[in-house]
């Protein structure tokens, strides 16, 4: 029974890592897109774009720290 619980926890951790990786990748691509738009096309990014980029970067940091503390708890 204990082994099953351990395996389940390990699977959850692996899922967490995969989800995290995908999320971080998506967020980074989004932020890069906004930056790319500003610098290459010399278009001022709309306020909404900047707000989204900022929000995602901040929530990205929080998410990573949250998951790190969760892994430490396990």
Automatic annotation (TrEMBL):
Keyword check for Membrane: yes
Transmembrane segments: 21-39
Keyword hit for Transmembrane: yes
Keywords carried by this UniProt record: Membrane, Transmembrane, Transmembrane helix
Protein name, entry field: G protein-coupled receptor
Organism in which the protein naturally occurs: Pristionchus fissidentatus
């Amino acid at each position: 029974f204990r082994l099953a619980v351990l395996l389940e926890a390990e699977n959850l951790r692996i899922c967490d890592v995969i989800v995290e990786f995908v999320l971080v990748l998506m967020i980074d691509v989004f932020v890069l897109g906004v930056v790319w738009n500003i610098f290459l096309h010399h278009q001022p990014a709309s306020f909404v774009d900047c707000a989204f980029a900022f929000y995602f970067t901040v929530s990205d940091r929080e998410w990573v720290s949250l998951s790190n503390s969760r892994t430490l708890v396990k």
